[in-house]
Description:
Layout: H1 9-17, H2 19-48, H3 54-77, H4 86-117, H5 122-152, H6 161-165
Helix pairs in contact: 1-2, 2-3, 2-5, 3-4, 4-5
Amino acid sequence: MSLRSFVPRVILNRLDSSDTALKAFKYTVASVVSVVISQAILFLSFGVLHLWSATTCNFVAVAVSALPSYYMNRAWAWGKTGKSHILKEIVPFWGLAFLGLILSLWAVAAADHFSTVHQFKNLQVAIAVNAASIGAFGVLWIGKFIIFNKVLFANKDDSDLVNLLD
């Protein structure tokens, strides 16, 4: 069974007619995979195993999930092959990943502190920390797509992002 069987027809029609829409869809799938990886690592390492502090567990989760995110976005969503360009692809991607990490570390620390002050139970703290992490990355999600599509992995024939919103 293919991925096409799970996607509503209206979306498939749009994906077939727009290169940018297809990239947006693939970017979304890559993001979902990255979120599942990072949230699972964060929940297990902080909420279940209590290995380190919330921020340390978040750091590890973001670092691990960034690798598949880079390769899925570069190769699958934008169809880039060959060696990655250090200044045009790697540095900007990891710069954005670092920005997301900083924002999520702040959000996770705030959620952990809030949960402690309000005496949340362990599961509640874990859920608050995970929600803060995912929320921080959600804030950056649209901006990253625009940067990936128009700067990082851009082709000369890329259609305008505005066409996606028509």
